[in-house]
Amino acid sequence: MDKQEQELVSEVQKLFYNCQLNQCINVVNKLDIDRSFNCHKIMQYYRGLSLFENQETQKGYECFESVIDENQKQNQGKVNEVDVMIRVMYQLEMYYTNVQHAEKLNFNLEKVFQDYEAQHSSLPNYKKEIYLFGKGMFLFIENSREQNYIECTKLVEEAIELTQEYKQEMMIALGWMYYIYQKTDLSCKVHQQLYLINPRYPSLANNFAISLHEIGKNGKAEELFLEEEKLRNNNQISIQNIAQFYFSLENIHKEREYYEKLFSIVPKTARIYHKYGQYLIRIGQKEKGLSLLMQGLQIDPQYCPIYQDLSDIEYDNKNYVKAKEYIEKCIYQYPKDGYYMYRFAACLEALEKYQEAIEAYKQAIIQKNYLPYKIFSNAKLGMLHFKLNQHLKTLEEFLNTCNYKSVQSYQQKGNIIQACFFLNQQSKISLKDKLQQINKQNGYIVTRFEQFSIHVGDKNLSKLFLYRLDNLRAVLAIIAYQKYIESELIFQSQILHWDLFLN
């Protein structure tokens, strides 16, 4: 880029960072003519982000898809850091409103950051932070629903330390990652750091307020929500979040004020009809609320959250066939989504199609799903097998509910007590089968065997749980020895102290 283009890019970036979204869009629309391709991509990057933050979501999709398509045609597979940033932030914006769609397209992000590393890692222009940010976002989207708190945040933290150019984008992403992983204190810390750098970054005040509300700092959260409202007046996401905030505080007058403000926004989206319809149903105006949900589907016939609500309403009214039909609309769009499959399985179970429900619950566990619904699926399988007098399979599934990594302690205790209830059944499952089940357990469940030993009634089973736990501790001791101690046991002769070595 020449100097003039660099100045233009700087101007566009400042407009976005200053939350002057309409101005940013207008400048790009007016001046992105006959520019170098890299200048064009950067300008469209900030235009796309501005469209998303301005709640012009469909135009945001079109902007990013267009520039991605242009790059594929013009550069024939070659990518640079701008291409990675476009795909990363595209995925993040998508994740905010449609997790399933972000997961569905996540393979595109994986390809672009891998291509960037392959093409540039040996060149002077390689920016490691871009690769790290791309990989971190990919892993986050891939694993967040199952609460696999893996290396994604560390990768983004490292990227932030290495960069100045895209620091603010990386920080807003990291703050949201911590929030989703329920690391709310860390989320607040990152948001506070970004707030000190640039309090006007689009959606920062909103995201920061959500995190503060989560830890009970409602006074500061309210200040930030109202600050966001001033920055992005008539933004449907922020207005909806403020309404929800006042609902949680049981301030019915403020809640009504902001839901009515939400519904006054034009043009109306399916999301607006959905959220206002939900509100009306909750306050007893069911017929009007249902009418609004249907109007939302007229605007966007593929808007799954409305189908979910309609399915719930029909399920509560015991219209299970209709409930199943609505959730099938979601499965048609996302056939590999475990959450929708769980809801589908519940309809089949209610219709007493138990074998079909069992297969659907199994798919809900295998497919991408929110962690609680994977655990619920195991428990539902256990109860279905119990109804069918398949008691050993019942025990297997309740043991499976205890074999997940990230579970709230109170939930885990309940899962263990349920599993022990079936272990304590004397007549339904033989002692031999119980022993075999315990012996074949591997994974996180073994670390919880001390709790099993407390709640199980049979002393022999209790001893077996403790024996398995002792074996695990012994293995961990050997691993720790090899990793941390062995290298220190070298005498002056440089001879390893083999008599202490365990393999």
What's the Cα radius of gyration?
27 Å
Q: For the residues shown, what is the average pLDDT?
A: 91
The end-to-end span amounts to: 59 Å
Largest sheet: none
CATH superfamily label of the domain at 336-502 = Tetratricopeptide repeat domain
What is the helix tally?
Answer: 27
| Total beta strands | 0
Structural class: mainly alpha
GO cellular component, one term: endoplasmic reticulum
Organism: Tetrahymena thermophila (strain SB210)
Protein name: Tetratricopeptide repeat protein
InterPro entries: O-mannosyl-transferase_TMTC, TPR-like_helical_dom_sf, TPR_rpt
In short:
The chain has a domain of 167 residues: Serine Threonine Protein Phosphatase 5, Tetratricopeptide repeat (Alpha Horseshoe). It is 74% helix and 0% strand.
Report on the architecture of this protein.
The chain has helices at residues 3-17, 21-31, 37-53, 57-75, 81-97, 99-104, 106-120, 128-143, 152-162, 167-180, 184-197, 204-214, 218-231, 236-248, 252-264, 270-282, 286-299, 304-316, 320-333, 338-350, 354-366, 371-387, 391-400, 409-423, 431-439, 449-455, 459-485. The radius of gyration is 27 Å and the shape is globular. It has a domain at 336-502: Serine Threonine Protein Phosphatase 5, Tetratricopeptide repeat. The longest helix has 27 residues, at 459-485. With 503 residues, it is an all-alpha fold.
